[in-house]
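Chapter review. Work through the record for DNA 3'-5' helicase before attempting the end-of-chapter questions.
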Amino acid sequence: MNRSSVRLLHALRPDGRNLWMVGDAKQSIYRFRGASSFNMARFGKEDFANGKRGRLKRNYRSVPEIVESFSSFATTMCSGDADSGLEAHRDGKGQKPELRTVQRAEQQQVALADAIEQLRSEGFAYRDQAVLCTGNEKLSTIGQDLERLGVPVLFLGSLFERAEVKDLLALLSVLVDRRAMGMLRVACWPDFTTSFSDVAAIFEHLRAAEHPSGSWLQHVDAIPSVSDTGRQTLSKLAIALSGFDQTASPWTVLATLLLDRTRIAARFGVSEDLADRTRGIAIWQFLNFMRVQPAGRGLPITRMLDRVRRLVRLGDDRDLRQLPAAAQHLDAVRLMTIHGAKGLEFGGVHMPGLNSDTIPRTPPAPPCPAPDGMIAGAEGSALEAYRAGQAEEQECLFYVAQSRARDRLILYAPTEKSNGHSRPLSPFLDRLGSALTRRSVVPARPLPVAAEARGVELVIDGRLRFGAPQIALYESCPRRFFYTHVLHVGGRRTTTAFMHLHEAVRSVVEAVIASDVPVTEQELTDRTDTALADEGLGEHGYRAEFRDLASAMLRFFLSGRAGAIAEAPVAVSINLGGEEILVEPDEVLMRPDGIRAVRRVRTGHMRSAESKDVGAAALILAVKQAYPGAVAELVHLSDGEASELSLSDRELKGRTDKLSKFLGDIRAGRFPAEVSSRTCPNCPAFFICGPTPDGPLQKKFA
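Structure tokens for DNA 3'-5' helicase:
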């Protein structure tokens, strides 16, 4: 409990009579909620001075081999002591806790699946086994991998990021998106299978035409280059969505589609496959979510899609991750966080990721730490108390995870990173002593490739040609690059008022660069007001603050041009192995000191690696090629700084090699997704990111 709860108990029962308290400081894993074992240390002393203390020593859950393991660890914990060990009530089975190491991370899930099947053959049902991790994102990855390996799992994870739910979200987006980018996922459905070439033809047609959202389905015969099979499939889709448009209720659309116009719900209903049952549960959960959407302005489907993005971005979808009670009887492996497993027990417990970079994890300092002296019982500064508490909690997490197992406990860890460097094991393992057996395993089968990770069959006519910002996007997320610059359906991110502010500043910057006439203070003010109004901020509640921010950025931009002669920027073509990178500087200035500056102007803040990424390398290569003796600069208006780019010969060669590799990967159709809970919900391709239709995709870039 937290300190406030103890004070409340004092107020309710000052003398402590008839109060009975139980706790285990070694299982204190809810510090983020304010809980602290500090209260236990004060019991019978500063708090409830007449209280009596005792210690429970007998463990009725686990076999002696497992009790010995977590007891050995307990005696070395910050919250433990030499008397923290427990005695097992049960008889031993001769199976000590085991550490199974593999070489690479992708082999870990295969070793995990093999161990699950091994325990099942020994009499442990799937439902009596649990995989415990420190975070939900890792559990989601493990769950998907285990399903591909044929192991049934009982885990929903992030509901809106499940494949079957994203399929439905993509379908709904077809009704409100003029580009119909959701067809990328719909074309992968068995009910509406469409070739990649046909989907590409649809996109090309919609880019050239001006159809209202969703109306193109009524005119599929007018789409050129679509195969006869493709037209038949599109006609089936048109019939399935008949009567619905962008004003339709999303719940009505999907309920009608799933139950009346397709066999999708029926297939899930009769399937004996545990994975299908879990998918059915996820869809049921999603339909319940849609049925109770709050009323609001705008199109219902668009409003719902925006709400989904917001829920995922803020992590407010956690209630939707809970499985219904009726699903608990399913014979499937439980996937849980250690926090979620507290208080539960399983015949076999599996804990992957026992590496030093996973547990104990060193969290970043809190953005707003408590003032020094505010935390009762803390020693040192508030930051020192926070770090000490986090280190203690990491020990408690490991203790809780071990003590969930009744009969078998198996730990896993890869020993190498993806680059071949050594990946150290968790130091917690050495503290288990002789209670832990270790062995290295080499899985006999590979981990099946996820559908969304498979390469695209890209047939390219001629050489590749991309701009430096485009290739920089490939570095940050190859999948988004694919949607944006190969398929041309990526669109813009979901905009906010601050993003509109930056667009307004960007438009003024571009106008200043395009004009040879100096800008007066009054002209700058007028242009700023006009640009803000054009972006819809003219009547915004924070219009004055936005105007001040925009003015500060623009004044810094103009100050950097003072006394310099602006030259017309010229696009520079860089040839790399027959492929082409096109670098277009935002402006070129000849300064009074005779130094020419080739500049890239950005309205935002500088990213930590921006001065060293491939975009920066491309700009340096362009300057060396077309502007000998000039300097390359990155200008960030929000920071009020202009940074000169400088890479050593070794660094520049490394970035050049990386550029060449990226171009080779693009030609080979390799576009893996860089998954991030922070950036993905804002991505234009959030609802379609995943598998692509079968068949080749023909493209010409130059």
